[in-house]
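Bench notes, afternoon.
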Amino acid sequence: MKQSYILLKIILGLVALAHIVIGIIGVIPQIPVSIAVLFYGAALTLNAQIEHVLQMFGAYMLTLGILAALAIRNPVQNKFIVYGVVFMLFLRTLQRILFAGQASSVFGIPLGVYWAQTVIYFAVAVSLVTLELKVIKSSNA
């Protein structure tokens, strides 16, 4: 159980860190959006509307990152935060599968990069739910 518990906390930490960093980039207009664009590999034409949407997106990312960070302290007690993160990652995986062509053509994301990120989202979601259930089962035994 101890290994699963530590691994669960590490993965939650990575999820928290990624979302907090991307969230801060999105909500603070002084930080260039080009940094976030590099992460996703997207070609993005910025205008006032896109910048506003990215700021809203950043708020959600930052909030999710903070929630994931709070769950690290006790993932068993905070299982609903973990399940929320898992749900979001599964939903994002489904969206990426359904809209792959659109994302590739609109944002110019190379398909190899796009699918690699999709697999990572799915793997993180599966890992989190598997480890969370394993840790909960062990703590109830």
